[in-house]
């Protein structure tokens, strides 16, 4: 009976965490470059139950012992194992702002071991050390003329240097080259992640490597093709309709576990107040 309480509680906790994840996705449905999170729920290892009973061993002098009779497997609950970012390309939205630049996937190789498609990101200077990465191309110019993202992190060029411009009167070619007064000023830095599932997702749509090392340049990576579109942003890849359906499913699963928990509680009350009563 008490094992049932733990099993049902694990299901409720898993569905609660899944609801929080889906709610966060829905809240960022209009955040440029946001990548939806996906949850992986798996069960705890099953237990094999056996029943112990008396057994007589046929010897000259009978020996009494215990034998085990198999009953069957018993599930011990579920848990959310991990969350994985869905890195599919989002739709483009025109803004007509020179500082808005959409990153467009053209051809990205798959990892030979995992079979997962790689991903490309803009390079940002992390405030502590190393680099951070994002798909949000909604940039701006700070008071010093440096190109920054919405959180004020500096956008880096292909050489890992900050990009400084005199004003927002510039042009970005499809290959990332920035032209001001018909002169090439810099090339927007883009990095390639061969195994993007290994990246750590942080707040504000940022990604970082687990060990803090910088990703290689996408310009020097084999079979990586992409382009940029100025005056556009990449929208979130959250599917609002599907997310709402998944939210309802998670809520119903939580509610079902809750009713089972109530049934267990009623059974325990009867065991204490009725079965154990002495007339």
UniProtKB/TrEMBL annotation:
Residues 118-180 form the Flagellar hook protein FlgE/F/G-like D1 domain. The keyword Zinc does not apply. Residues 229-273 form the Flagellar basal-body/hook protein C-terminal domain. InterPro entries: Flag_bb_rod_N, Flagellar_basal_body_rod_CS, Flagellar_FlgE/F/G, Flg_bb/hook_C_dom, FlgE/F/G-like, LlgE_F_G-like_D1. Keywords: Bacterial flagellum, Cell projection, Cilium, Flagellum. It is found in: Bacterial flagellum basal body. It comes from the Bacteria. Transmembrane segments: none annotated. Signal peptide: none annotated. GO terms for biological process: bacterial-type flagellum-dependent swarming motility. GO terms for cellular component: bacterial-type flagellum basal body. SUPFAM superfamilies: Flagellar hook protein flgE. Residues 7-35 form the Flagellar basal body rod protein N-terminal domain. The keyword Zinc-finger does not apply. Its main location: other. Belongs to the flagella basal body rod proteins family. This is Flagellar hook-basal body protein. The lineage of its organism: Bacteria, Bacillati, Bacillota, Bacilli, Bacillales.
């Amino acid at each position: 009976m008490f094992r049932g309480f733990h099993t049902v509680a694990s299901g409720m906790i898993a569905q609660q965490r899944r609801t929080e994840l889906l709610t966060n996705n829905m809240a960022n449905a209009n955040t440029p470059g946001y990548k939806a999170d996906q949850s992986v729920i798996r069960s705890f290892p099953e237990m094999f139950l056996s029943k112990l009973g008396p057994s007589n061993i046929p010897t000259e002098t009978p020996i009494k012992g215990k034998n085990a009779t198999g009953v069957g497997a018993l599930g011990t609950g579920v848990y959310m194992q991990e969350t994985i970012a869905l890195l599919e390309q989002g739709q483009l939205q025109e803004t007509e702002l020179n500082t808005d630049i959409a990153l467009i996937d053209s051809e990205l190789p798959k990892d030979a071991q995992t079979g997962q498609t790689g991903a490309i990101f803009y390079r940002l200077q992390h405030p502590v050390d190393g680099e951070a990465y994002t798909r949000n191309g909604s940039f701006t110019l700070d008071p010093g003329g440096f190109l920054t993202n919405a959180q004020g992190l500096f956008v880096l060029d292909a050489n890992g240097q900050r990009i400084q411009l005199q004003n927002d009167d510039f042009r970005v070619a499809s290959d990332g080259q920035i032209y001001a007064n018909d002169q090439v000023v810099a090339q927007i830095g883009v990095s390639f992640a061969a195994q993007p599932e290994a990246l750590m997702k942080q707040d504000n749509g940022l990604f970082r490597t687990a060990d803090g090392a910088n990703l290689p340049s996408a310009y020097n990576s084999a079979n990586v093709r992409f382009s940029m579109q100025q005056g556009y942003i990449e929208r979130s890849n959250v599917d609002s309709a599907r997310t709402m359906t998944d939210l309802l499913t998670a809520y119903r699963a939580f509610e079902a576990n809750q009713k089972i928990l109530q049934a267990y509680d009623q059974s325990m009350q009867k065991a204490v107040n009725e079965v154990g009563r002495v007339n």
